[in-house]
Design goal:
Layout (H helix, E strand, L loop, with lengths): L6 H30 L38 H21 L6 H10 L6 H8 L2 H7 L3 H12 L3 H8 L7 H4 L4 H16 L8 H10 L4 H13 L6 H4 L4 H17 L1 H9 L4 H11 L7 H14 L2 H13 L1 H6 L3 H14 L5 H17 L26 H5 L7 H23 L16 H7 L13 H4 L2 E3 L12 E2 L24 E2 L10 H10 L9 H7 L4 E7 L6 E9 L2 E2 L24
Parallel strand pairs: 2-3
Antiparallel strand pairs: 1-4, 4-5, 5-6
Helix pairs in contact: 5-11, 6-9, 7-9, 9-10, 9-11, 10-11, 13-14, 13-15, 16-17, 17-20
């Protein structure tokens, strides 16, 4: 005679069954609401449908704006529309003769795919039609299995409810696009059972659905996740191995070609994980203006994931001056995550041209491709084969961290500790190249024998009063690099380095009060031109006859020419006024990129 099972075991089993039944009922109820869609009988909470205006405040992509858009288009927008219409015709012809020559495709994609052509162009780039032809009926089968077995339905429902709610396509609860997004994500969680669902997938699928139908978006999402060209599986899988690999390579790039900014980030504990996660996870959507993110997506679909690394570097390079002025972690993160999304500061064409130049430069430096991916970045299970979830997943019970997740946390802590060590090992960082306006680099002091001065006074700074420094053997205005040059100490000018052929070295000047620290030459000259300063120079032949050999005359005068000071510096050997001339290899390491700033 067998003994009856203990009562507490029966109670535990009954509780498990009750939890599974509750999860199944909840999943069924959620699916019913999406099936009803916009039916008036569907129950929608008042907070889920915010009120909105349609007229005047939506852009061409369907996104709404707080302020009204202009009632008429300016001449530049009219011209852009004409250009896009012409490109429409070229793309229609090219799509009818697919595939085109690679050089022609590359050129046209980087010019920008016309918005009306993105649907057929993206489908071609992602081989969507081929996937649909090879998998007839698979999507509907996955969707039916999801209705009965999906374990991520509750989280997907929550994410759909907050995805692109400022876009008309997703604005209304249970709208057509919301229902499509919900179906695609649930079906894919069954199709790729190893991956399931990760929150970043909602944004990726949401962008695809703005241009595609439901099943098309499903197979486009599958291409982005499983194709090694894009490899998003490694971004979303447990442990995020590809994210870790890309963050490490991103840091490697900064440390090699943007050392000033890298040191600045290290000093203020700005880890790349704080600002680059959404860059890599969703290809810059909601981190730059939507029109620019679409242009980045165009290039990403053509050239693959190396575009993501290059665009991250491009953003930091284009905005490095502003980032170096920010002196705390919160300000830097807010600038990268919030302000650039509202106002990128460059038009889309200039940004993509800069991206193309950065990609070429990284390729020349052999930094365009990160180290090879490991096997855990790609699916190991067969796709489309249904695997029943375990009881913990069915009930939605929160589980403990896995070993992989614990390792990710350990890696993050190690990175932070390493950054702290780098900060401590940086000798006198406050006097380094990326220090504030009231301090200057010791290396710069030695190599350029700059002025040993106190912080500049705003009302008497050279920049704010329009003072310029000119050399007798250069027909262009010169400015003093990395200097804080107060007017009341102008007589204490010590020395200025000289380039070969007797030309004075070009520098830039700044003051901490007007936040123009470390201006490069192009921006300094642009500012001088805007202020219409009178740039006066001494005649080289007259000066050379009265100066000793190997000497330089420095003339400092204001824009009106009514206040003038000059200093003659005699060169003895390789020295000026006994100040040693030291080569400064790190003076401007950002020049490794040589990307032209085209600020609007």
């Amino acid at each position: 005679m067998t003994a009856a099972p203990p009562a507490h075991d029966n109670n535990g089993e009954q509780q498990q069954h009750a939890l599974v039944k509750r999860a199944e009922d909840e999943r069924e109820e959620i699916f019913k609401r999406y099936e009803l869609g916009l039916d008036p009988n569907n129950v929608v909470d008042s907070w889920e449908n915010p009120t909105f205006e349609i007229y005047h405040i939506t852009d061409k992509y369907g996104f709404m704006h707080d302020s009204r858009l202009p009632s008429s288009r300016d001449s530049q927008e009219v011209q852009r529309t004409k250009i896009e219409l012409e490109r429409d015709k070229k793309w229609v012809k090219m799509l009818n003769h697919w595939p085109p020559p690679l050089d022609k495709l590359h050129k046209r994609v980087y010019k920008g795919i016309p918005d009306r052509m993105r649907w057929p162009a993206w489908k071609q780039l992602l081989n969507v039609q081929q996937s649909m032809d090879n998998n007839v009926g698979v999507y509907m089968r996955m969707l039916q299995l999801a209705k009965q077995n999906a374990t991520e339905t509750r989280q997907i429902d929550a994410d759909v409810n907050r995805q692109f709610r400022d876009n008309l396509a997703y604005r209304e609860r249970y709208s057509v696009k919301q229902c499509s997004l919900f179906n695609v994500l649930n079906a894919y969680s069954i199709y790729n059972s190893e991956l399931g669902y990760c929150q970043g997938m909602a944004c990726v699928a949401g962008v695809l659905l703005l241009y595609m139908q439901e099943e098309e978006a499903f197979w486009a999402l599958n291409s982005l996740i499983t194709d090694r060209k894009y490899g998003m599986h490694g971004l979303f899988i447990e442990g995020f191995p590809k994210l870790t690999r890309f963050i490490e390579h991103h840091d490697r790039i900064l440390s090699k070609i943007m050392r000033k900014l890298h040191k600045h980030f290290v000093k203020h504990n700005v880890d790349a994980l704080l600002y680059a996660i959404k860059w890599f996870f969703v290809v810059f959507v909601e981190r730059v203006p939507f029109s620019l993110s679409l242009r980045v997506w165009d290039t990403f679909l053509l050239d693959g994931d190396r575009v993501i690394l290059a665009m991250a570097v491009t953003i930091l390079y284009l905005h490095k001056d502003e980032l170096l002025r920010l002196k705390d972690m919160d300000g830097i993160i807010e600038y990268l995550q919030v302000k650039l999304h509202k106002n990128f500061g460059y038009n889309d064409d200039d940004a993509i041209q800069a991206l193309e130049r950065v990609m070429k430069k990284l390729k020349d430096l052999k930094l365009d491709v990160p180290p090879p991916a490991k096997s855990n970045e790609f699916p190991t299970r067969q796709l489309g084969v249904f695997i029943e979830a375990d009881r913990e997943k069915k009930t939605g019970r929160r589980r403990d961290y896995t070993d992989t997740e614990k390792q990710v946390l350990t890696d993050v802590i190690s990175r932070q500790e390493q950054n702290a060590i780098e900060v401590q090992s940086t000798v006198s960082y406050e006097t380094s190249e990326c220090a504030t306006g009231d301090a200057y680099s010791m290396k710069t002091y030695q190599s350029m024998t700059s002025l040993a001065t106190s912080p500049a006074i705003s009302s008497y700074s050279l920049y704010s009063n329009g003072f310029v420094i000119t050399g007798p053997e250069d027909n262009r205005s010169q400015s003093a690099n990395n200097l804080n040059y107060p007017w009341h100490q102008m007589q204490h000018l010590q020395s200025v380095d000289s380039l070969p052929n007797g030309r004075g070295k070009r520098h830039s000047y700044s003051s901490d009060s007007d936040s123009r620290n470390r201006l490069d030459l192009d921006r300094a000259l642009e500012a001088l031109q805007c202020q219409q300063l009178q740039l006066q120079h001494e005649n080289h032949q007259t000066v050379s006859s009265s100066l000793p050999a190997h000497s330089v005359r420095i003339i400092v005068q204001n824009g009106k020419g009514d206040d003038r000071h000059e200093k003659i510096i005699t060169k003895v050997g390789n020295d000026y006024n006994n100040d040693k001339n030291v080569d400064d290899d790190d003076d401007d390491d950002d020049d490794a990129l040589s990307v032209e700033n085209t600020r609007l």
